[in-house]
Write a structure and sequence with these properties.
This protein is 9% helix and 39% strand. A hairpin with a 5-residue loop joins β14 and β15. The chain is mainly beta. The strands form 4 sheets. Strands 1, 3, 7, 8, 10 and 12 form a 6-stranded mixed β-sheet that branches. A 5-stranded mixed β-sheet has the order 2-13-11-4-9. It has a single domain, classed as Sandwich (Immunoglobulin-like), CATH 2.60.40.10. The N terminus is likely disordered.
Length: 208
């Protein structure tokens, strides 16, 4: 009986010292940041590939624990979807009700100027983690997206300071940093060519 009690106490002690859960060591402070870049084409065409850029500067005096960007399509169907760039179809009985509006290219997102993938994956595929951000430093993330569904959509993004939600990001005015990109996707496919490497690229439209 005594041996059992000692074993139970040992397990409990081990559990108390386990800081492996997300956010276990994160503070509950707030961190001031500023969105300095927010770019995504308002008019797109089916099958066209576009770059979305979101740049965030740490405008406070403390290091942001984990700069996160959460992305979703605005509206009831977008907020219900498990896809960051998709919507959930209201049609009953579908085996896979989530439908992409944009498809994220492989090896994206990236930090601007880098060829390496960034934005660590986590339990929520809608949230991208870009790690700590020191005071006065800037992270500009780039997503390469291909439009696969026609219509009018608004892509929303929210900036935060941790994955767990314990640490919060805020603007100088005390609001949560974020914004939106209204986009109209038309059915007219873009003019494309296949490069020597096998990649399909859009031919830029000539200025009229």
């Amino acid at each position: 009986m005594a041996g059992t009690a000692i074993a139970v106490l040992a397990v409990a002690a081990a559990g108390c010292g386990d800081d492996s859960s997300p956010g276990a060591n994160e503070s509950s402070d707030t961190y001031e940041v500023k969105v300095i870049t927010a770019e995504f084409p308002a008019k797109q065409r089916l099958g066209e590939t576009s770059l979305m850029r979101i740049g965030v500067r740490n405008s406070g005096d403390k290091t942001v624990p984990s700069l996160t960007v959460t992305i979703f399509v605005a509206g009831k169907e977008g907020e219900a979807s498990s896809l960051p760039f998709g919507i959930r179809s209201p049609e009953p009985g579908l085996a896979q009700p989530d439908r992409p509006v944009w498809v994220l290219s492989e090896h994206y997102p990236r930090i601007a100027g880098s060829d390496e993938r960034a934005g660590a994956e986590n339990s929520s595929i809608n949230t991208f983690d870009f790690g700590p951000l020191k005071p006065d430093e800037t992270t500009e993330a780039v997503w390469k997206l291909s439009a696969v569904k026609t219509g009018n959509f608004t892509l929303r993004y929210e900036i935060d300071a941790s994955l767990s939600g314990a640490a919060k990001a805020e603007t100088a005015e005390g609001d949560q940093p974020g914004g939106s990109f209204p986009a109209q996707i038309s059915a007219t496919p873009p003019d494309t060519i296949v490069t020597d490497s096998g990649e399909v690229v859009t031919i830029p439209q000539k200025a009229k």
